[in-house]
Amino acid sequence: MSAVFAHKLNIVSIWNYRQILSLLALMVKWIVFD
């Protein structure tokens, strides 16, 4: 596995992690402020 591919994969996983976190925050907001 090349270093460049691993680097791109790392960036993608970080981006997905942030997306999931913001989705969770949105769900918590809906539940709390329902």
TrEMBL record:
Taxonomic source organism: Schistosoma curassoni
UniProt name for this protein: Uncharacterized protein
